[in-house]
Fold:
Amino acid sequence: MSELERHVGEFEATTGLRVEVHEESGQIYILIEKAPLPPGCYRVDRSDLLFIGDGQYPMSALDMFWAAVDVVRPNGDIPAGADSTQTYLGRQWRRFSWHRNGLWNPAGNGLLDHYAFVQDRFAKDTTP
Structure:
């Protein structure tokens, strides 16, 4: 079992969320289905999330993340740092250029750690 497969299993067991992993052209796409968002802060209360890494995971850090394009404020405003959309895995994603700005620990579970970063960042971005 690869380190990524082990991390995915731990992630699913810990969060109860389903994960798909796609590998394409040296990139690893980690799709987390229907992750919760802070209530009332966005037009939707759940979104698929996309983390993108490379074949060196977990030695190379995950950074930023992508969410459904409808992850906007209830009034339609776009959150700061999320004004770009990109296509991956055959669908449009809103890129959240919210960077970790911290240390990456390849000895831990990078997937759980990055998800915690994303959830913490969403929690701090609670301007409805």
